[in-house]
Predict the 3D structure of the following.
Amino acid sequence: MFFRFCRARVRGEMQYRAAFVSFTIAQTMVTLLDLVAVLAIFSQVDSLGGWSRGEVLFIYAVSVLSFGLADLTFGSIEYAAATVMDGSFDGFLVRPMAVMTQLLGNFFALRRAGRLIQSVVIIAVVLGAGSISIDGVPRMLFAVVMVIGGALTFSTIFVFTSTVGFFIPGAREVANAFTYGGNAVAGYPGHIFGSYVRNLMLWIVPALFVSYVPSIYVLDAANPLNFPRWLQLASPFAFVPFGAAAGLVWRAGVRRYESTGS
Amino acid sequence: MGAYWAVARQAFRRQSTYRAAAAAGVFTNSVFGVVRASVLIAAFRQRADINGINVAEAVTMVFFAQAMMMVIRAFGWFEISDRVRTGEIAVDLQRPLDVSGYWGSVFIGQSAFSLLSRGLPPFLIGMVIFDLVLPGNLSTWLGSIAVIGGAALVASRWWFLVSLGSFALSGDTRGVIQLGAMIQVLGSGSIIPLQFFGGSFGTVLRWSPFAVMSQLPSEVFLGLQGAGGVLGAQLVWASILHLLGLAGWRVCARRLVIDGG
């Protein structure tokens, strides 16, 4: 049923091809700006917190890829707050189907895929240029697990932050600061941040578990904060505790929702 | 002149009704400021001086840029393009005011409110967390205020010009605005100070109209530049963009067809 929703949405998008193309290009370029910043820094210095250009580009690309996958599947949850405000949320409650499935299907947008293409290109270029190496099959397999786990972690962040809309309508911008701030932090070696930002982005918003902590293992990179190996390997599963919490808040939010409509 | 002043004041007051959005925006700008500053501090551990600036100056530039982002609308300015899409632009044509002047006044009014509500607080938060460099004398303060005003003026002319692109691509307006925002954000040093772009690319950006919207004003604030030269460059760019905007507007207004009954 979810996929039937998606197919219908994609057909709809393709009716406005010019808008689809321009949005995709615009989104790709917004992400490219962050890449420009990383490259500009490495045009002046040759390491950042003890990590080389190839290593930083790798964790940046992994975080973009994870964010892109999460955005494509769960990103449309951000409209939940808007439907609460304009009243159309009522419609989702009366249909015999999970609210989440309806929301995600209803607002699915293939144009969100622009990020994915770009991050795959960066990973390919960085690996192809030989500036980093992933040694051994276990590390390569773990890299795949890391991307999937990272996508799930970002998805739980989306669900969690969008739930703010149920409690404080109109506070979506605060939610965005966590989502996009988390995205901005996820692409850098976490130890360059002060302890407040770092702890926030590890234990409240698990953004640094998306790419930075697991990449210490994948790339065998410098680990000045001495994250233990078990934590590096457990990082892709950071979404489990956080997702459970997000799920509870989401349910409480839906239950708490009272229609204002006539 | 009195009418334009009234329009700007109304825009200022209209903006002030969105208090929750402003508070949330302050939070977002502060978070991004802290993230960008932390990254630059890590870079300066490798080199004490990057093309003439030190770490304190670079961190100040980051928060100055965050403060300017809503003043120059680095996330895009959709007022005119949204009205073109809905057809409401027809109403503007009937006003006994020059269209470019009317929208310029709206922009300046909004910018003034944004500077106080969304620009100043993140900068103060930056001052609490990091050691920021402040002007040492009154004339630098006055010069900084002048070039911040100049930046808003140039930005108002830039967004009027970009908005005209939405006439050419009616129905598909957001892509044009977003493209305009990206060029502006990169060229104004809002993503990273222009000192990080060496070579001819950096030189081209410094001489672009975007540098006068945030990068060069931040250098005035830090005392690295005199206010006079930057103010002159801002007036030249504002005039050029204004004349381009007027020429473009004449073409667009002639071609404008309002749909609907």
